[in-house]
Each structure stands twice: as C-alpha cells, then as structure tokens.
Fold:
Amino acid sequence: MNNESLKLKVAEYTAKVDKASAKFPERKNLEYNRLYTPLDLEGMDYERDLGMPGTYPFTRGVQPTMYRGRFWTMRMYAGFSTAEESNKRYRYLLSSGSTGLSCAFDLPTQIGYDSDDVISEGEVGKVGVAIDSLADMEILFDQIDLGKVSTSMTINAPASVLLAMYIAVAEKNGVSADKLQGTIQNDILKEYAARGTYIFPPKPSMRLITNIFEYCSKNVPNWNTISISGYHIREAGSTAAQEIAFTIADGIAYCEAAIKAGLDVDDFAGRLSFFWNAHNNVLEEVAKFRASRRVWSKIMKERFGAKNPKSWMLRVHTQTAGSMLTAQQPENNIVRVALQTAAAVMGGTQSLHTNSKDEALALPTEDSVRVALRTQQIVAYESGLADVVDPLAGSYYVEAMTNEIEAEALKYIQKIDDIGGAVVAIEEGYIQREIQDSAYKWQKEVESDARIIVGVNKFQIEEKPVEGLLRVDASVGEGQKKKLAKLRAERDNAAVNAALAKLEAACGDEDANLMPIIMEAVKTYATLGEICGVMRKVFGEYQAPATL
Amino acid sequence: MDIAEELLNGSRLALSRAITAVENEHDNAVDIMQKLYAHTGNAHVIGITGPPGAGKSTLTDKLAKEYRKQGKTVGIIAVDPTSPFSGGAILGDRIRMNDLTLDKGVFIRSMGTRGSLGGLSRKTAETVKIMDAAGHDIILVETVGVGQSEVDIIKTADTIIVVLVPGLGDDIQAIKAGILEIGDVFAINKADHEGVDRLHTELEMMLDLNQQKTEWRPPVKRVIANRGEGITELAESIAQQIDQSKQSGQFVTRRKERTRSELLVMLDELLGRHVRNKLSVDGKIDKLVASVESRVRNPYAVVNEIIASVLR
Amino acid sequence: MEKRVRILVAKPGLDGHDRGAKVVARALRDGGFEVVYTGLRQTPEQIAEAALQEDVNVIALSLLSGAHNHLFPRIVELIRANGMNDVLIIGGGVIPDSDIAGLKAAGIAEVFTPGTSTTTIIDFINANV
Structure:
C-alpha cells in the first residue's frame, strides 16, 4: 500500500470512528488519533531515534539487557511511627522479597524539626518515621546489613544530615562508605514547586546539593546523590509532558549549579537519577518514559558536553500514581496499581514502588503492602512483560506518542530557558501555575463527567466504612520527646556545641564543603533540629511566592 | 456589640467587623463611620501601586516590618481583582505577609474590587479611616495600578509609591496614564534583574519632563524586596516626601482636596440614590423612559422637571 | 447589598500537599466567593488571627498528613476564643471516616474526604452560611 492510498484509508477510517463516537459521548474528549499507521512514523530512523537498548539515545532503555539480566529493584516506600516500628516493617519487606529499602520520614524530620519542637505537635511519626538523631537511625537499620542492601531515602532539605547519619551507622557496623549503595532524593527545586518540604532559600540549598555531589563523588561513589523528581509534579496535577519537562529543567539547573561550583560534568552526572510517576494511561506512560530518556541523553551529550556514556543515561525509580487511587471501593486500587506497574515495566524503570489499596485512606498495613509487592512480583514472573526488552518499540502508536511527548517537553524546557532557568521559573511562579492550571482542568473534567473515575463518578456503591486501617498512635510524639530528653542528658554536650559552632562558621564560608562538618556533628549526637537550626540561622528560610 | 465603641477601646474584632459593615453596606455602617470620624486624620496613608508581578505585596510586607522596627503600628489594605464572571476573588496577598500575621501591631485586610467602580474607592477610603481611628500610625494601601478605580483608590493616600520592575514588556509605556503623574516616590523592584539601568534612566527622563509645579521631584529608589534590600532607604524617601509636603503646605492641600472630593462624591451618590428611589415608586421612571424613547418628550426637559420637583 | 461570602482556605501544620486546597480555592472563586488563601505551614494561631482580620464567614482547612485530630480542634478553640462564634469551619483531606464524628463534636461542621466534588462543597457552604 503506498502512502497516498494509506492516507485515504485513514481518512475513511477516521470518519467511521467519528460517527461511532457520536453515539459514545464519554469518549468524545479523547485527545489522540484513534488509529496509528506507518504514516505516523515517517522520517524516523532506528539508529538515530531509538538505538539499541543501552546505547545513545537510550530510548529503548539504559541497560542493554534490561530485565533479562535482573529485574527492576522492588523498593517499597515505608516508614511510620518509631524507628523500632519501621525497622520491623523493613525487615518484613526484605523477607517478603523486596530487593531494596526506601525510607519515609515524618514531616518534622523532612523539615528539619525535632519531635519536641512546638511545630511538630501532632505530626510526629504520622507520614513516616521520626528521626531526631543518629540514635534513631541506628535503631532504624538494626539487623540490616548496609553493605548488602541499597537504601533510598526520601529526604530533601536536610538530606545532608540524614546521609551523614546513614554513613555513620554503616561505619559503626564495619561497612565503609565506598561500599554503600542507595539514593537520597535531595531535589529541592521540586519541593518549592510541588511538594512543600523546603527549608532554606534556593541559593544555600543549591550549595548543599553541590556539596553532596562533590563529597559523594570522592567518598561514596556508588551512591545516587539526587533523585530528580517528576512524581510529585505529576501528583500535583501536571500532564505527562509537563512532568518530564519540569523535572528535566530542574536537572539542567542542578548540572549548571554543580558546574558553576567547579565540578566536571562527568564527575557527578553518572550518579544523577530520576523519579517518575506511573500513571493510569498505560501506553502514554510508556511513551513518556522513552521520551524522557531520549531528551535527557541529548541534553547531557550536546548541551553539557558530557563524554562518559554513563552521564547520558536517565536512570529512574518509579512510583505508581497515588493520586489516582480512590477512597471509594479501595479494592479497585489493586487493579489500578497492576496496570500502572505494567506501564512502568514496559517503560523500562530501574526501580519501582507500588502503592497499596488503602492509599487514599491511611498508610498501608502489612497485608495491603504485601499485595502491592506481590503485584510487582506477578508482573515480573508471570506476565511476560519483563521477558522482552522495550517490547512496545515499533508500535505505530507508542513511537508516535514518544515523539509527541518529546516535542512538547522540549517546548516547555525552551520556555523555562527563556525565563532564565528552573530556579527563576519557580521564583516567578511559572511552573506552579502551569501545574495548577492542569490540576484545575482535570478537576473540571472529572466533575463534568468528561473524565470517568470508576467508583467516584460512575459505578458508585453505598460505601461501608473501611476496617483495619493503620493508625499511628499519638503517643509516638510523647515517646520521642522522652528519648530526646534522655539523649540530651547523656551525650557530651560540649562536643555537640563545638561541632555546631564549627558548622555555623562553615555555613558562612561559601567555599567550605559542609558534609564533613555535618558528619562530625551527627556523630556527637547533635539532633537534626539542632543541626538544621544552625543552618536556618545562617541561611534563612524560604518564603514561598503566592501563585494562585 | 457597639462596634465603634469597642473599636475605640482596642478590640480587633470590632475593627474587623467595622470594615465588614462598610464593605457589605450594612445598615449600621453610616452610624459607625459617624462615630469614628472625629478619631481619624492621624495616620500617614501610603498607597502602593504598580503592574501585576511588580512585587508589591512583598514590598508592602518589608515596608511594614521597617515601620514596626521604628515602633509604629501598621494597617494594611490589600486589594485584588474580583472576577467579572463569577463575582468571586482570590485574595492572595496575605501569603507574602505571613510573618506579620501574629504581630499585634499590624492589621491586614484583603479586599476584592467587587466590580463597582466608585464603590471600591469609597470603601477603601472608609477602611482607611477605620484603621486610622483604631490608632494605626501608618496605613499601607496596596492595589494594582491598571484600572481607573484603582487610580482613584491610590489618590486617597498622602504618599503614593509606584512600583516598577525591569523587563516587563514595554515598561513605562505599559503603565496606565495617570499613575506616573501621581507618584511621589518610585521604587524599581527586582533591581538585580536585567534592564534595571535602562528602566531607571527612562524613568528619570520622564520625571524630568513631567516636573510639576510642586517642589517635590519624585526620587527613584532601587529595591530588592524579597531580599529586604533598599527598604530602609525607601522609607527614608517616604519620610522626606511627607516632611516636605507638610512644610510646603501640600499635605494639607491634598487632604482638603480629598475631603472635598469625598464629600461631593458622597453627596452625588446619596442624592442620586434618593432621586432614583423616588422615581422607582409606581413605575414613574418607566413611564418617563417610554415618553422619552418615543420622542414625545426630550430627556433634558424630563430631567429639569425631576429636579424641580425634588427641590420643591 | 454588596455582600460576598468570605472564605479562608488554610493549610495547617507541616503538610505540603496543596493541590486540593488550590483547586478548591479556585472553584470557590468561580462559585462567587472571596477566598483568602494563606499558603503552607499555617499554625493554628496564624489561622485564627487571619480569620479574625479578614472577618471570614467560612474557614476551610485542608490536611493530608494525619495531624487533623490535634490541629483541627485547636483551631476551633482559638477561633472561638477570638469571639468569632458564627464562623462555619469545614475540613478536607486524608481523614479516616472513624475520626469524623470526633471532629464534628469539636466544632468542625463537615469533613470532605477524597473524591468529593467541589460542587458538593459549594452547595454545603451556600446552605449553611
């Protein structure tokens, strides 16, 4: 069939579909073409646009053998209440087949406050584990061999402190820093734009981040020093193209900051990692993953002139979209997570967290988290989706969608460049407004039934209250307060004060790398709040611009 | 609660309720204003205007903190546009003044433009008086200088600060005519952005051309509001302007002009309302409209007749 | 009569998830309300004071971090201590059904959980303010 006759056939077909759609109004708002043909792939070149898996531009995956060599890391985000409780959950997950750890910290910890701070009242241990000092960290990893397990820590503004604590715990247990594997999220720009657990203003925050890049490149070479995140941007309401565009723009800003601080791009770029969302539209998500790898590799090679192929690779951890899970008929969420998992796997993720069915209601129980983990294992072992590398390559639809998402993302990245980069775009509120506009549009679609959410605006039932949800006791806060009082009484306070004073001086010296000094402070059992308090004093606090 | 009395005794709730009464035109609004009026005239009213995105709220926040350092109490009125479609509004200026919320020496009130041109400037003027009567030394009125009603609001101030930023399109040409003429002090915010020198020069040139008969030549001050830079100097310029204005007699002249205009506007409004109310009785207005529209009568004669009958 | 209903949308505590609060604020604006939004990390004291200064008719609290049982009643307490007894206080976010009765007893008029439409919220406000 030649192109001309194919075009005619497509037009005929499209007319038929339009006619049929008229009788199916719920589907009227679909954005994409309904049928994709070779016409949609005109001009594509396999070597140039796809390449072999593990080769530039990495569209087909960052490793040549992908899941044939080993599965993605099954890494379940967990943490709540006390270090003792969370340690139990970590050991449960490891024994159930999870292949990496992922730590969730409570809000006071994420924002650099001790459990006994006034502002921590009511929040201790609620959304993650409370870590006030090295003592808590030691308990958190009790009976876990840090030389064997890789740990991801979702910590941003005080990432330096938690990383220092992790290294200190490992040291105490005879594991040297150069053996440690893991990730710290450490992505402050998305905190400003979408997640909200910032502490300091952009300039000192970027300094801390580049200090960490430098310190780890020398001392903790197997550590991913940043997880540049799009997950939260998507959860805040952005579209798929915006998710990768804003995240990659953040990535560009981090690279520029590190280079400005004197680092060579190939010294740190290989340890940058990313964090995507696995949303409901399965095939769009696969295309998004593929597009993101192609966009990033071109930027690293052409814009930053990186020479090491490792610097061109977008390695990614993924989480299934929490915001798409419903409080209504929670069992349905298991199905949603399975589909999102399929998307992440066909998209080529290196690591995956799957949400539990009770996501919209509470933190997961042991039972519901087990089902979430089993979802990954079933996809891995039973579905065949992991048996072939980049199985959807060559699909007219997926390749066309990959191209489309790439083009849209590049437009946004250009726009942000024009504004002056991600930091300025966030200060001006551009990124936040784009996200909000998409979020509002989505809500209007749901409320007008243009977008159906099963169980919420269609197929509803009379809901029964859900039993057996996880509850974090209010006594956790009281327990932590007691622990802190004991700690403060028993530690060498002279050493603590000396370390904090040293930190304060170093904060004021722009050329000083703060990591070694934070390591010292952490080992004296200075608390997270005390260390961050010093940094707050010198750096000030971020004032969020209004962007409604 | 006797709102006026409690307000004068220091109740912040009464202050807040007084503003609501005036904004929503409650029946007791006029009574409250009458009771408070003798206690007004003491505050220094500063208007802050400029295009959207100029950083007015941040500047207002920093200026308020500067005045607090000087031991002065501050009232702040932040005006935001009401949606012409829904009648609702997002009043988001407070978000940049979070630090000030718990300072008992500061009172912040957000207002929507609510669509009625004359109404807004009157309500703002009344809110200024209410905060004045409550004893605030400084009252900052922050609004967007793009509509005629906002120009009117700003005229209720003793000192008008115009805030501009470099790189916002056509810069000076884009500013609504009338704002440049009434500015007493110009603040270039985000002075670390590209284009600041050009903007500063253009502004100085325009101000030279525009030089009024008064002795005060508006200074141009550079600030970086979100870093708190240039604020003290800005406050100094404001202080100088007020001093000079008082010495030259301009201060009193301006206030008298405003009082005159307020009085006349109030008169127009009440008279007009009174007449309209009379005309709506028994559909009198409808009959007159019909006769004028059909050319049986002409509007000039009709109006004269109405006035004559009212003045009888 | 120029009356508008004034609503304070507030995020108490350390929770940084503001997608819902912002969507609700916009929807309320489109519904004809005047919305004062004060951003993240509001303490109960800040919320009560802002409510007083703005003389709002409604306070809408958004919280997804699980700290509602501590923070919501505290906010109600402070609002009442300020003499604002007629304010309608509503809440939303990740709040288990089993906590709702307790919150209502503490003075929260209604709690809107995930999946609620903005129309439902607006209708409730119009019916109760």
